[in-house]
């Protein structure tokens, strides 16, 4: 089942206001988050809401991602623990949204497969009026990945898309709510990352039910692609 033309028209008209022009206010962001959490509970895919003082909070998900065989922070030649690893196969910036695939990533503690622990936060930025993705990754012995290692772990499709301007796409800064170092996808590059995800959801009929466009609309459609 595919999205009908009139439904796609609604999306086309609405996204420039909500995504391209970044006119998503905090109240709408929180409302979308509640819808996402409801859906996440149905899928059991691990998203939660971390509440802080007042109405402040953020979406959070922690998951394990497998690494290629032979990956390790130290290789022959005495490289330091900060040496670059081989590229990861999974895409750490976009969740699959599949219950089966996510379940496969919840590896048992006694698994022999090398893994990294990824932590994702989706926050609302008042300055940019848009959601912002913050994330970090650790080896199982607690070592944080460097920026170079983060870039090595990004899916090749996104790496090629941003190879001409890596420094202003993914960088490290203090988490605005936690005060801890996190990597983040710069808000100015959000549309470039999310555009293909939005289109893929349309192409696969993910939001084909007419009631979606009447009752929940493209605002949720945009934000839900973060999950």
UniProtKB/TrEMBL annotation:
A Pfam family that the UniProt record links to this protein: Autophagy_act_C
Segments of this protein annotated with the region Disordered: 66-110
Annotated GO CC locations: cytosol
UniProt-recorded Gene Ontology molecular function terms: Atg12 conjugating enzyme activity
InterPro entries assigned: Atg3/Atg10 (IPR007135)
Biological process according to GO: autophagosome assembly; autophagy of mitochondrion; protein modification by small protein conjugation
Key words, A-Z: Autophagy, Transferase, Ubl conjugation pathway
Coiled-coil regions listed in the entry: none
PANTHER family noted in UniProt: UBIQUITIN-LIKE-CONJUGATING ENZYME ATG10 (PTHR14957)
Family the UniProt entry places it in: Belongs to the ATG10 family.
Name the record gives this protein: Ubiquitin-like-conjugating enzyme ATG10
């Amino acid at each position: 089942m595919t999205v009908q033309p009139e439904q796609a028209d609604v999306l086309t008209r609405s996204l420039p206001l909500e995504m391209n022009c970044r006119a998503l206010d905090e109240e709408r962001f929180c409302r979308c988050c509640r819808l996402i959490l409801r859906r996440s509970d149905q899928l059991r895919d691990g998203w939660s809401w971390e509440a802080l003082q007042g109405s402040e909070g953020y979406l959070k998900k922690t998951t394990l991602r497998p690494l290629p065989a032979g990956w390790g922070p130290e290789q022959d030649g005495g490289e330091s623990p900060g040496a670059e690893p081989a590229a990861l196969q999974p895409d750490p910036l976009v969740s699959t949204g599949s219950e089966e695939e996510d379940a496969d990533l919840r590896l048992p503690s006694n698994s022999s497969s090398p893994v990294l622990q990824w932590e994702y936060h989706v926050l609302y930025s008042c300055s940019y009026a848009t959601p912002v993705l913050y994330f970090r990754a650790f080896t199982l012995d607690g070592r944080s990945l460097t920026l170079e290692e983060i870039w090595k772990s990004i899916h090749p499709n996104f790496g090629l898309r941003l190879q001409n301007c890596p420094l202003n796409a993914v960088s490290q800064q203090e988490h605005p709510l936690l005060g801890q170092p996190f990597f983040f996808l710069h808000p100015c590059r959000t549309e470039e990352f999310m555009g293909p995800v939005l289109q893929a959801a349309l192409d696969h009929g993910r939001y084909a039910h007419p009631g979606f466009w009447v009752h929940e609309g493209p605002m949720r459609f945009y934000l839900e692609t973060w999950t």
